[in-house]
Amino acid sequence: MVGAKPAIRSQSTGMPWTLIDTAIEGETTFELYAKDGVHMIRANGFELMNGFSHESEIALGIRAAALAPGRAPRVLIGGLGLGYTAAAMLEALAGRGHVTVAELSRAVIAWFDRYVRAMVLPALPGNLSIVHADVADLLTPACRYDAIVLDIDNGPEPLVAARNGALYTEEGLRRLRAALSDDGVALLWSGFESPAFVAGARALDFAITCEPFQRMDRPDLSHFIYVLRKARVASGVVA
């Protein structure tokens, strides 16, 4: 815990923020800011997310719930952040299935529980588990998911931690594919379009689409949701 510092201004809102906590984990310095009960997380100086501009995270959670197959889908979300993606998905699922959120930062989990959850997810549902883990370690054939949501860093080109980039390499995509059920779907939040990522996914027999999301507060700025499925051929699902 650190003492309060002079307020800064968020580029996205122009609102003043006050630093209320900081943590150093590996190569990353995380900072938690607050303004009028709303929070923002910065990592290595980059604003990752804030409670005034979370429309794309909500859209990601709702879209994932709509695409998750089955009556009781098993869902894995990589990245807790401020919890908006998980909260939106849980609301849309309306009690169906089970959602596991893997968060690499212990500080982010602690901040969510202490400062954020009361506003974003006041009642913890029984079909939610929040675990301290690298989501990459959970992508195994032994534990297959109907929906996998990667809400990590800035997308295929990480800003916060170089290790996050491994998720989008050929090996990372192979692990993602192996962890999906046959009808499963993977969704990826990205701050930009990545033709290289699309080409790599298609090379591994993913059917992939890119859905732009335009922010209401910044009409000049779009975020993107990539949707990946195991490609289907005439003989059935590609293994």
Tell me what the structure shows.
- The chain has 239 residues and is of the alpha/beta class.
- Helix content is 23%, strand content 36%.
- It has five helices and 14 strands.
- The protein has helices at residues 55-67, 84-93, 106-120, 170-178, 195-203, and strands spanning 8-9, 16-25, 28-35, 38-43, 46-50, 74-78, 98-103, 128-132, 145-150, 180-190, 206-214, 222-230, 232-233, 236-237.
- The longest helix has 15 residues, at 106-120.
- It is globular.
Provide a brief overview of the structure.
By secondary structure, this protein is an alpha/beta fold. The chain has five helices and 14 strands. The protein folds into two domains: 8-50; 55-237, Vaccinia Virus protein VP39 (Rossmann fold, 3-Layer(aba) Sandwich).
Descriptive labels:
alpha/beta, disordered C terminus, five-stranded antiparallel β-sheet, 5 helices, 239 residues, Rossmann fold, 14 strands, 2 domains, globular
Question: How many structural domains?
Answer: 2
Structure summary, number of beta strands: 14
CATH homologous superfamily (4th level) name of the largest domain: Vaccinia Virus protein VP39
Catalogue the unreliable spans: 1-13, 233-239
Q: Could you tell me the CATH topology label of the largest domain.
A: Rossmann fold
Going across the biggest sheet, name each strand in turn. Answer: 8-7-6-9-10-12-11
* Rg over CA atoms: 18 Å
CATH architecture of the largest domain: 3-Layer(aba) Sandwich
Helix residue percentage: 10-25%
Report how far apart the termini are.
49 Å
By DSSP (H or I, 4+ residues per run), the number of helices equals 5
* Overall mean pLDDT: 86
Question: What fraction of residues sit in β-strands?
Answer: 35-45%
**C-alpha geometry:** globular
Which CATH class of the largest domain?
Alpha Beta
Structural class: alpha/beta
Question: Helix and strand string, N-terminal first?
Answer: EEEEEHEHEHEEHEHEEEE
Question: Please, what is the oligomeric state?
Answer: single chain
Largest sheet properties: 7 strands, mixed
